[in-house]
Amino acid sequence: MKKRSITLIIWLMSIALLGVMAMQYYFVRESYKQKSQLFDEAVTASLLTVASKIEKREVYDFVKEQQKIDREKYRKEQAKQKTLAKQLALQKRIEELRIQQYELEQKFKDEEDLLRSRYPLIAYIENSFYETYIKRTRYNDFVTIRILPGEIDRDIQNNVVEVYATKKIPMIPAKDDSTRYLAFLNSYNDINWVVRVLPPRGDLKIAFRIHALEQELALNTAQTLIDSVAVMGGKNKELVTSVAAAEELSKRPFRDRVNFAYLKNEMENELSKRDIYAPFNLEVRDDRSLLVYETWREKEGAKSAARANYSTRLFENDLGRSPGRVTVYFPNKPSIIRDNISYLLLPMIALLALLIGAFAYTLSIIFKQKKISAMKTDFMNNMTHEFKTPVATIMIASESLKDPEISSDERRVNRLANIIYDENVRLGNHIERVLNIARLEKENLKIEKVNVHINEVVSGVLDSMALQLQKANGSLATNMAAVNDLVTGDELHLSNVFFNLVDNAIKYSKDAPDITVKTFNLKNNIVITIADKGMGMTKDQKEKIFDQFYRIPTGNVHNVKGFGLGLSYVNDIVKRLNGKIQVKSEKDKGTIFELSFPLKGANLNGA
């Protein structure tokens, strides 16, 4: 593969990796924003609910107290005037009915508050309008909806919705007393709405019964205290007939109107219902912004509060200005949001690590293949040179035999015949070496398992190479000290292993080769060492010598020939025979190859 192609692949993979990282960053950022928005909505809804509960609690407590006072008053009067017993019973019945009516109105109010918290805008529609224009879909086009800007509250534009018909048609009477709203999915120009049905605001039967009892008591011109309390709790100003209770409640000191323990407990409960368990700080202020209650869980809470605070008004339905405000602070909101999306980060980080690992592995494979390609090219060059020399020699010798003068000389013919034979043997050895490596790669090299005496095999190899060593003016020292030398192996391949190692010791010696061969026993193994004092190897070269096609560079010295297959073959044969091979070498000081084979009958697992 060309360098330009590799560079292009690296650039493309880098761009793809950066793109994945950018997409993951965008996804995490958007998830953080979404979780933060959901957190804000949950906290705001909790605050509104708690404020409503505080107001309801005050109303209930006040009603209970007033009922107690009224009952005591009636009991006293009953003792004085037995004639009022019937009126007291009627009054009590009226109060019970009004409480039932109040509870129904409170239920309606809760449903209405829930509806308002779910939708940005809602608009009340009469049941007859619904039956005429909304339910009959063919008349939906006559319905016009306008969203008008309303009052601004804390920099938030509160919009107002107008719903009317552009064409008058005969109205269909209402079929039930349910309360219907148009709920809008957003508060912008793109209007999408759905119809939501709530229960009636009150029970007409109860109202008629109260009216009848009031007429019986001649109370048609005056309303009881329960009406005013119900109006305050239900926040329905259309039903207000008396403001006495509201005035009396608003006159109480603000600090006495709020149960702070109840406030804190309800805030925790509402947040837990929405799966928020983070620590928070509460702050309550009156209508003059004076601090009346606070809880700080952290020393640095004031600094963090400016970043995550939520506020709502208390006793919003008091006459005149709202008397107070409650605020909740979350000192560690960013960490809360991060914890909520942490389950996304781990798989994303794992995926990114996997991509980076795959990227690095792919590059390593590319560079490795490029290196192997270069080594194979070098191998082909060496193989061509090694095959060319004996072929050329055989050709020259063959042509010489055609010469009548040479063919008549028997001595010269024998000499040329020996040359042809030696070169054929040399060529066959080259071919056999390449074929052995091919067989090793295909895992079909036949390995015999017979009894082999290592000392005899080593001695035989040294004897056959004595002439080659003598030609190089080398010296050989041997020490066959191994008493037990019987192993299970293949004699031919073991001979080739020792031949390759001794041949390398001769070829890679700068001067006259000085070779030492030893055998000795170590535990249940026989160890063979072949040492030379040749050119040696660097640490980097030593790590690569068992790779196929790798040849140690010899600079300007060209007498070292070969394919780079010998040590790869040696390493593979040693491993196939359950042996081990180690190399010790220093540059310009020599090399020691140490081979170890288990003796026959030795326990391989314990050796």
From TrEMBL:
EC number: 2.7.13.3
Species in which this protein is naturally found: Sphingobacterium paludis
Name of the molecule in the record: histidine kinase
Top-level EC class as recorded in UniProt: transferase
Coiled coil region boundaries: 85-114
Residue span, Histidine kinase domain: 382-601
Signal peptide: none
Molecular function GO terms recorded: phosphorelay sensor kinase activity
Chain segments annotated as transmembrane: 341-367
Protein's UniProt keywords contain Kinase: yes
InterPro entries linked to this entry: HATPase_C_sf (IPR036890), HATPase_dom (IPR003594), His_kinase_dom (IPR005467), HisK_dim/P_dom (IPR003661), HisK_dim/P_sf (IPR036097), Sensor_HK_Regulatory (IPR050736), Sig_transdc_His_kin-like_C (IPR004358)
Pfam families: HATPase_c, HisKA
CDD domains registered for this protein in UniProt: HisKA
Keyword Coiled coil: yes
Reaction catalysed by this enzyme: ATP + protein L-histidine = ADP + protein N-phospho-L-histidine
Taxonomic classification: Bacteria, Pseudomonadati, Bacteroidota, Sphingobacteriia, Sphingobacteriales
Keywords: Coiled coil, Kinase, Membrane, Phosphoprotein, Transferase, Transmembrane, Transmembrane helix, Two-component regulatory system
